[in-house]
Amino acid sequence: MKFVVPGSNVKLLGKAIHCLAKIGDDVYLEPTRDSLALRTVNSSRSAYATFNFGSSFFSVIEQTRAKGDSMEEDRCKVMVRSLLLAFRSLSVLEKTVDSCILETGQDCKLLISLNCRHSVTKQFSVGLVECEALRAVYDITRCTNRWIIQAKVMQEANGNFLANQEEVTMHVGLDSFKMKNYNDDYDEKKQVHTELAMQPGEFEQFKIVEEASITFCLKELRSLLMFAEYLQLPISANFSQGGQPMVLTVSQGQAINCTYVLATLADQGEGQECERIPTTTTSTAYQDTASTNISQAGHGRLHSTQRDTPVPPTCPTLSPNLSTIPMEMPPSLHPTLDNSMDLRPPDSDCMEGTPPTKRKNFMFRRCFDATFNPHTVPGTEKVLAPDSDEEM
User: Fold this and answer.
1) pLDDT higher than threshold 60 for residue 319
2) Cα distance between residue 101 and residue 389, in whole Å
3) Do 267 and 243 form a contact (C-beta atoms < 8 A)?
4) φ, ψ for residue 317, nearest 5 deg
5) Which of 36, 134, 275, 381 has the least C-beta neighbours within 10 A?
């Protein structure tokens, strides 16, 4: 197959490839007689994206195979890094490229030709790998909740979250919409908590049949918002409850149709506490045992740091002879204050094993001298500048 993309749509094709690069490592090409689909899936199989370009998106579509050949033979995949080599700078593509040709040859190669101005042609030959069709299993008709909003409005709301935020939790009600960041770390002091609320009037359509709370990855949503904001198109979401897929779509007539299918996580709430019960139970049992021992010990032993050791009944009790203990302490042990004590720091020579005199001891040695008199410093009696005349 051979697809010719006009210059006005080359940047849009490049943006689609950049969005796919944020999700998966491989791009699946599925050409048909009147369209071209680009699909990808992430490594954990939790996010699926597809961009379907209709016949109006291309200026020319040529079939290089015979009419009897099946189109399934053209299904292949290519590394997304190889495609980014041709569509690296979108601003340069918009200014210099007049048309782009995508052609699959007989030698399992994808030939990308960029016809630039001044009769300059750039060609990229990318290797292809045969593969099966990539499809996501979902049924959009079973989704009970749906909302549609302009991509610019949702992008402004998304700007409240940190750039490194991975997952968010969405709470929807009959007349309420809230989003907050989701963190696995239970230490609240180490995380920045962000929560935003939007009114149903900010949506073009807000149809909620049942309340739901779902957690999904924010990376894929940002990828789709970037593409929808460029086209100034609304984005629609269809979902039911947590644990069921959420479908995000952006379409522009028959030319472009973009679909994202994201795996969701139910808001566990009490379920998270149930998962942590083994750890919590162990800690609680230890605390209860410790508190029981303390209560049994009595209030008189709260200041004791010794371990309570039961005394065997057969062991004789030893009592000290109090008569041998002197009632008064020796005079040498009475605390006294010697006023004649020299409070100056000792010289370094008197201390064994100390390093030589430090610089600070040398600079401030006069401060500890009790006979220091500033007037005895040489040069103080010399007048360096006479007194000024009195004002008349």
Assistant:
1) no
2) 96
3) no
4) -85, 125
5) 381
Cα first-last separation, the chain:
107
Q: Scanning the structure block, which residue is given the tokens 């924010």?
A: 218
Cα(221)–Cα(248) distance, integer angstroms: 8
Q: How far apart are CA 114 and CA 124, in angstroms?
A: 9
Tens digit of pLDDT for each residue in 121-139? Answer: 999 988 887 777 777 888 8
Confidence of residue 384 (pLDDT cuts 50, 70, 90): confident
SS3 at position 207 = strand
Q: Please state the separation of Cα 44 from the chain's center in Å.
A: 18
Q: For the chain, what is the total number of helices (H) and then of strands (E)? A: 8, 20
Residue 281: pLDDT over 60: no
DSSP letters spanning 89-117: -HHHHHHHEEEEEEEE-TTSEEEEEEEEG
Nearest to 208 by CA among 181, 182, 238: 238
Is the entire prediction scored with pTM above 0.90?
no
- Give just the sign of the alpha carbon dihedral 5, 11, 15, 17: positive
Q: CA of 236: how far to CAs of 190, 258, 276, 311, 326, in Å?
A: 34, 11, 36, 77, 92
CB neighbour list of residue 259: distance below 8 Å, 6 or more residues apart? 49, 50, 52, 247, 248, 249
d(CA 174, CA 206): 9
Q: How far apart are CA 57 and CA 15, in angstroms?
A: 14
How far are the Cα atoms of 4, 151, 213, 219 from residue 231, in angstroms, in the given order? 21, 9, 29, 19
SS3 263: coil
Residue 128, beta-bridge partner list: none
Whole-angstrom distance, CA of residue 249 vs CA of residue 265:
20
Q: Sign (positive/negative) of CA torsion 278, 279, 280, 283? A: positive
143 residue type, one letter? C
Q: Is 81 left (phi over 0), alpha (psi -120 to 50) or beta?
A: alpha
Q: 42 Cβ partners below 8 Å, 6+ apart?
A: 23, 24
The yes-or-no verdict on residue 288 having pLDDT over 50 is no
Q: What angle do CA 315, 317, 322 make, to 5 degrees?
A: 155
Give CA–CA dist 9/97, Å, rounded: 10
Q: What does residue 130 show for φ and ψ, rounded to 5 degrees?
A: -70, 145
